Amino acid sequence: MKKVLAVMAGVAFAIAVLVFALTDKHEDSFLLRTSGFNGFAVNIPMRDGKHLAADLYLPKREGPFPVIVVQTPYGKTPMFRPLFQFVPPSALLFGDWGKSIFSGAKYAVLVVDWRGAGESREAAVAENQRIDPSAADGYDVIQWATAQQWSNGRAGTWGPSALGLIQYFTARAQPPNLACAVPLVHPSQLPHEFFFPGGAMYNSLVNYLSKLGSDATQGGDLNWSLRDELTSNYVLTEEARRRQRAIQTAASELHVPFMIIEGWYDIYVDEAFAFFADIQRHGGSASARERSRLVVGPWTHATHAEATGDLSFPNARGDDLRFASRYLDFCLNGEADRFDLGKPAIAYYQMGTNEWRYTDHWPPSEAAQRIWYVHGDGSLSRTPPQAENAYSEYRFDPADPVPTLGGHVLDPELGMGPRDQSPLIDSRADVLAFTSDALANDVVVAGPVTVTASVSTDRLDTDFHATLTDVHPDGRSMLVTEGIQRLRFRDTPMREDLVEPGGRYLIEVKLTSTATTFRAGHRIQLLLSSSSYPKYDPNPNTGGPLYTGEAGVVATNRIHHDREGSTRVSLPTMPH
Asked: Residue 379 forms beta bridges with which residues?
């Protein structure tokens, strides 16, 4: 009975505290009295006379403060206010989402609704406006914030995904008081090949981005059909490439240092590597070139998730935010001991051994290519095949494609990250599996993976898809990385070149970069097929114009593994 009374008393006390907090707010703050911040709704004037709506969070201590600016198309109020509401003065900003970022309430935080989005809808100046490539708004926000009495005149930016993309535009405008930027899971540049990897349209991404485009303004329909835009221009032209470069931020336009944070299972990881290398070579200032950093962890697009697909990496939980916190402390507060500039520029998480490693360039210079060959008995080994006229054959029906099961996808419904591919291997005749013996020693892979395949088909065009997996001792075949190649674009995305039915072709399938250690006792596995839907738009196999809604036909496809032309996977392998 005493225990019951004690519990009831505790509940009553908690309710009393909550009621007190809800009814006793501090001054004009919209946050509870118990929060470590005061929150104020502000309107920020733009140079064109319009205003952007923002929420300002000021620590409950004496300033002035550096300010971290977050620009969002998803609504400042529902996205951030609940996170600040119950933050006590000694806690870490962003609650559970960011347990390790901006500790000690060192910063003012300004969360701004993009022009045309959220409470800034009335500031829209053009129909369907989504983002301002001129970056005038970001410039004006930074300069307004750093001119306020509570500011010490220094600003940084932070934010994931779309909130990361806009930071490149803001930095390109070169606001004088911007000190650094920390975009998560979004690079600056998305070339044509990103939307058409290997020439096949990134179907699930296009669908998901189009849906976000309609929803982002909280009821404002953008009528944005990314699919129509892409499918009418699926063959790359020089004019299209020129237009892309004109609206995307170049590394030479960045004059402040960046920390770009990515995940091995995020859709943008290869583009982040490419752009970071460009910053190292062509950044617009010595500070940008020498002080920028890249962090790649065992994450999907949701870097804060508890698990990554079917695997868990608990010792990396929150590391994206810890890296960001130390970098911002260094850039904005001059805390030199918080971030070691002497370490190499790229921090990457080696999955399998589950440890952080460092390198100045990607792939690491120590990585050497090791070739693994497929064989007709379903094996994968370091020995080239010696058979004559050997191949494995399957039928690919575009009306019944292989379902996407995890991997580098944006839509949570597809199961982001490493997923067990065994259900596909066991149930699909159009998925070929080639598996190594159990490894006697660890195989440490770090870098982009390439499959070179000797293939043929009885059609004018088809696709070939490759998945690299790590087979655990319990039999799970965990996806590591994957990629696809459309035959008509085997040489270049700028020209369609149909194949001769029955002819043999040597193609390269580029798989996304990874850093994975295949542990001793595990097996390396290569899965080959011709589809992964809905991630990629299935090839109709007809050789006709694409994306017309034309009914497809079944293709009989072959993977050759003989002396004339071997099929193999090249793994960038580190010494150990």
From this structure: 435
451-490: per-residue pLDDT in tens? Answer: 999 999 999 999 999 999 999 999 999 999 999 999 999 9
Structural domain including 65 reads 23-190+248-359
Confidence tier at 7 by pLDDT (50, 70, 90): very low
Q: Are residues 438 and 518 in the same domain?
A: yes
In a domain, 375, yes or no: yes
555 with 395: CB under 8 angstroms?
yes
Distance in angstroms (rounded) separating the CA atoms of residues 29 and 56: 10
Q: What CATH number does residue 170 fall under?
A: 3.40.50.1820
What is the separation of C-alpha 300 from the centre of its chain, rounded to a whole number of angstroms?
Answer: 6
Task: Give the DSSP H or E segment for 164.
Answer: helix 162-172
Domain count, the chain: 2
363: preceding bond cis by omega (within 30 degrees): yes
Q: How many Cα atoms occupy the beta-carbon half-sphere of 563 within 13 Å?
A: 3
Task: Assess whether 351 and 448 both reside in one domain.
Answer: no
- Over residues 38-95, the pLDDT tens digits come to 899 999 999 999 999 999 999 988 999 999 999 999 999 877 777 676 544 444 344 4
Residues 443-459 as b/e (b if ≥16 CB within 10 A, e otherwise) read: bbbbbbbbbbbbbbbeb
Q: Give domain status of residue 256, yes or no.
A: yes
Phi/psi class of residue 116: alpha, beta or left (left: φ > 0; alpha: ψ in -120 to 50)? left
pLDDT (tens digit per residue) in 387-416: 999 999 999 999 999 999 999 999 888 999
Question: What CA–CA distance (Å, rounded) separates 8 from 16?
Answer: 12
CATH code, 435: 2.60.120.260
Q: What's the one-letter identity of residue 98? A: G
Residues 72 and 130 occupy one common structural domain: yes
Domain membership flag for residue 68:
yes
- CA dist 278 to 288, 294, 348, Å? 11, 12, 18
267 and 181 belong to one structural domain: yes
- How would you write 74-109 as a 3-class SS string? CCHHHHHHHHHHCCCCCCCECHHHHCCECCCCCCEE
Residue 178 to residue 287: CA distance in whole angstroms: 13
